[in-house]
């Protein structure tokens, strides 16, 4: 229909011209419902929950189509996986309700869901075998490396366009770069850039599987592939420097010690300075002005994981987990800052284990660092098994928000308990990395 005709004048990627030249001549772009429909067709997923076991059993036969070595797979170019998808909020008002929030802008959690689906389809496009309608690969999201926003508001009545392609390939993993643009006055202007890392596994989603290598076609593409390799090394360095593996730096220790000294309660009745200092206790603490203890800056939530939220492999859809974590993080930032927060960045979301349908999903939000108008929120996600009574971490989410007003300073009280001081330093590191990027 004419509502989907789009003339693209601006694209954030330097690859835009070369990549779009590799797409089909049709002006009609697929929408997000077509993206999900294509994914079901590629995998052979059942739309009926009762049939899901049989559908997964049928995938076992696809094992014979897996490559024994990466060298056996034909190399691909970036343009081979390039996709453009429309979200017709302006031209199809009937889909608007699903994306609308109370502030009359677009729900960012829904955008996270769409990015997740699109990222998977881009990877299936990269690994497509011409003669095979069904893919033997199970492609799942391993990591949301970074999502940076350059617009505060996403309008609910203007068409959105997503573009993306595979930007780097390992043996069994793929980095995907995606961009989101919104139509204003006949032009598409950038809203966000996203980098996801996907992994390929066998038809039963049990073991790693090889993917087609990526070869550059231009000097620009060569640079992007090099950047992908650097991103991988950066992720390894960031993980190695984690506070769970390495002690805080001297500078970080000083930060925590200064906070500790500023919260000591030295108010004592009578006596000189020396007498007062003698009676100061590690337990005698006071909150500095315009501050909040970290332990008072939490929010919790619970989700029952219904079949409706399953992905094409009958596990809970990663985009749904991101949406629920974002909404809790937003509510945490909102209640902490006392005004409407806007998302600035999402980073370092590691999908540690799949979430089964029927799970009880426990979400814990924590404001872990603040600076001026900025609020850094960490959301911890875990599943509870009612049979074993065990809790298992599935994800850690990191969100950076900016509030309309300056916010109180969040202050860790102890090293103990849930390690507030370590959470504070972890939040400070994530915030610093985000500010460096944007």
Automatic annotation (TrEMBL):
Tell me the domain of life.
Eukaryota
Please provide the Gene Ontology terms (biological process) for this protein.
acyl-CoA metabolic process
**Keywords annotated in UniProt:** Hydrolase, Mitochondrion, Repeat, Serine esterase, Transit peptide
UniProt subcellular location: Mitochondrion
Residues in HotDog ACOT-type domain copies: 81-204, 295-407
**A single Gene Ontology molecular function, please?**
carboxylic ester hydrolase activity
Q: Which GO terms describe its cellular component?
A: mitochondrion
Positions of transmembrane segments: none
Q: Which family, according to the similarity comment?
A: Belongs to the acyl coenzyme A hydrolase family.
Q: Which PANTHER family match?
A: ACYL-COA THIOESTERASE, ACYL-COENZYME A THIOESTERASE 9, MITOCHONDRIAL
* Protein name, entry field: ACOT9 thioesterase
Question: Source taxonomy lineage?
Answer: Eukaryota, Metazoa, Chordata, Craniata, Vertebrata
Gene for this protein?
Acot9
């Amino acid at each position: 229909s004419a509502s989907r005709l789009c003339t693209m004048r601006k694209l954030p990627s330097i690859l835009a011209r070369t990549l779009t030249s590799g797409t089909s001549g049709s002006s009609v772009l697929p929408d997000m419902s077509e993206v999900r429909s294509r994914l079901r067709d590629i995998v052979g997923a059942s739309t009926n929950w009762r049939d899901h076991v049989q559908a997964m059993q049928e995938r076992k036969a696809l094992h014979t189509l897996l490559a024994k070595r990466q060298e056996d797979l034909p190399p691909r170019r970036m343009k081979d996986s390039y996709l453009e998808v429309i979200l017709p909020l302006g031209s199809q008002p009937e889909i608007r309700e699903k994306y609308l929030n109370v502030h009359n802008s677009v729900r960012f959690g829904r955008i996270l869901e769409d990015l997740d689906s699109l990222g998977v389809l881009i990877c299936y496009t990269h690994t497509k075998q011409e003669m095979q309608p069904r893919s033997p690969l199970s492609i799942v999201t391993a990591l949301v490396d970074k999502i940076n926003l350059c617009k505060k508001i996403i309008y609910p009545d203007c068409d959105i366009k997503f573009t993306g392609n595979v930007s780097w390939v390992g043996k069994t993993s793929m980095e995907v770069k995606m961009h989101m643009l919104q139509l204003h006055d006949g032009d598409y202007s950038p809203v966000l850039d996203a980098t996801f890392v996907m992994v390929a596994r066998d038809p039963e989603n049990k073991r790693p599987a090889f993917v087609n290598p990526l070869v550059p076609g231009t000097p620009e593409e060569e640079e992007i592939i090099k950047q992908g390799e650097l991103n991988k090394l950066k992720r390894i360095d960031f993980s190695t420097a984690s506070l769970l593996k390495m002690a805080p730096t001297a500078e970080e220790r000083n930060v925590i010690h200064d906070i500790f000294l500023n919260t000591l309660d030295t108010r004592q009745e009578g006596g000189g300075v020396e007498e007062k200092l003698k009676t100061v206790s590690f337990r005698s603490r006071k909150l500095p002005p315009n501050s909040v203890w970290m332990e008072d800056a939490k929010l919790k939530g619970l989700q029952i994981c219904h079949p409706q939220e399953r992905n094409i492999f009958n596990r809970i859809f990663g985009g749904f987990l991101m949406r629920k974590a974002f909404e809790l993080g937003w509510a945490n930032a909102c209640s902490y800052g006392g005004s409407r927060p806007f998302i600035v960045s999402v980073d370092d979301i590691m999908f540690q284990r799949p979430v089964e349908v029927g799970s009880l999903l426990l979400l814990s939000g924590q404001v872990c660092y603040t600076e001026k108008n900025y609020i850094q929120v960490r959301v911890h996600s875990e599943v509870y098994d009612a049979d074993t009574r065990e809790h298992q971490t599935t994800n850690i989410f990191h969100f950076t928000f900016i509030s309309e007003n300056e916010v109180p300073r969040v202050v860790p009280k102890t090293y103990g308990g849930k390690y507030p001081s370590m959470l504070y330093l972890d939040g400070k590191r994530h915030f610093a990395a985000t500010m460096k990027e944007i």
